[in-house]
Design goal:
heterodimer; A: about 100 residues; about 0% strand; B: about 100 residues; mainly alpha; Helix Hairpins; elongated
């Protein structure tokens, strides 16, 4: 979110958006389809979604050990490979952002 | 009493707002924020299900989703800044050619 604020500040957006809308007819179908999508999601929620196998991390157990500790334990044992891939992903994204934002290479 | 259904309905509302925002607005930065809104709506339902099913996997997936969202935000905003430098606009109707 801080990044968004910086970019908005940097670009100084004070243009009138409605004046340059090239697709004004898109607005009403978009809202209608949004309502349809919301109804569809609500129907899915009302269906048999709430069945499933309950795990072992009950609220009492999580509160006794600590949420952060449990997440940390899982991150560094069972989910170590995704965690490392995440670090590589962030590294690549940072390099890509710098390369894109540079004026001259 | 707040049950999981309330969280799921809130998540659905946020997701729908994100979809409608992407379809309606023409400002690239606002479209980007709407994409973030959709990601966070899914995060909310992940956490709600994780709590409901007494599981930890949902919270771990939220962790990874937030990382991907951060990477996406960094790269996307860099692209927007580069486009703004070249074209002096972030209106996506003005950015409809792939080369010039």
């Amino acid at each position: 979110m801080v990044l968004f604020l910086f970019v908005i500040m940097l670009l100084n957006l004070n243009i009138k958006e409605e004046a340059k809308n090239a697709l004004p007819f898109q607005r009403i179908p978009a809202v209608v389809m949004g309502i349809v999508l919301f109804a569809a999601i609500c129907m899915i929620i009302k269906s048999k979604l709430l069945q499933g196998k309950h795990g072992e991390y009950t609220t009492a157990y999580v509160n006794s050990v600590g949420n952060t500790k449990l997440i940390g334990n899982l991150l560094f044992t069972d989910y170590l490979l995704p965690f490392e891939i995440t670090s590589i992903l962030l590294f690549v994204a940072a390099i890509g952002a710098i390369m894109l934002a540079k004026r001259k290479l | 009493m707040i049950t999981i259904t309330h969280y799921l309905v809130l998540s659905a509302i946020l997701f729908t707002l994100g979809v409608v925002g992407v379809l309606v607005r023409r400002n690239a930065i606002i479209i980007f924020m709407c994409i973030e809104l959709m990601l966070n709506a899914v995060n909310l339902s992940f956490v709600a299900f994780a709590h409901y099913l007494n599981s930890m996997q949902g919270q771990l997936f939220v962790f990874f989703t937030m990382t991907v969202a951060a990477a996406e935000a960094a790269v996307g905003l860099a692209i927007i800044v580069a486009v703004f430098r070249n074209k002096e606009t972030v209106n996506i109707d003005d950015i409809n050619i792939m080369k010039w």
